[in-house]
Amino acid sequence: MMTRPDPSGGSRLDAIGTQWSLVRQAHVGGQAQSVGAARQTLVLRYAKAVRRYVGGMVKNTEDADELAQEVVVRLLKGDFAGADPNRGRFRDLLKTAVRNMVHNHWAKANRRRPADVELDNVVDDRADADWDAAWQQNVLDHTWAAFKEHERGSPSFALMKLRTEFPDDTSEQLAEKLSAKTGTAVRPDACRQMLRRARLRFAELLLREVQVGLAEPSSERVIDELAGLGLLEYVRDFLPDDWKMSGRLMAE
To answer: Who's near 158: CB < 8 A, 6+ residues apart?
Structure first.
C-alpha cells in the first residue's frame, strides 16, 4: 500500500501499510491466482537485487545466474513461509538465505579461497556492503519507475534526470537543457519551482518504496533505513524538525 498525501500537502508515513502483507499472501493457503500473483510481485521486486548481490560474491557469471535463479524459484515456490516481521526486515532474511546458498555452492564445488583467507570472513566483510549496495539500487530503480509513471506527460521526470546528470548546473543551465529536451521554452524561475516539486514527489515515492519489508514503517525506522542505505540525501531537504513525531514531509 502506498502513502497517501494528507490534506496539508505533506506525506504521512504512518498511513503506509507494510508489504509484509504481500509476503504473507505469497505463502498462505488461498486462491492459487492471488498467491501466484503475490509471488510474482516478490520476484519482480527482489530479483535484480539478488542477482547483483550474488554477482559480488560469485564471479563466474553462469554460477551467479544459476544461484540467483534458484532464489527466484524459491520465491515462486513459496519457500519463505517462515518469514516473520518480528524477526527483522525481510531483506535481511532474504540476504541470509542467499548467503547460505552461496556457502552451499562453494562447499559442493569444494571451492576454497587462498589458504590465508577464511571463507566466512570474506563473506562477512564484503557481503553486507554488497547487499546494501544492491538493495540501494533496487530501491532507486523502483522509485524512478514509480516517479516516471506518476509524472507521465510532465517534464518533471526529464528535469530530475538532468539534475542527476548535471548536479552542479544552475537553474539557468538546467532550464536551457530542459527547453532543448522538451522543445518548449522554460524560464529559470519556473525551472526552480518545477525542480523543487519534482524532488518533493521523488522523496515521497522513495519513502513509500523504502518501507517495503519493514514490519513497522514508522518515521524513525524509515529514516534509519534511508540512512543505512545511503539514501537520506534524497529526502533531507524536506524533513521538518518534528519529522519523527509528525511523519510528514514539508509541504510544497
So the answer is: 178, 181, 182
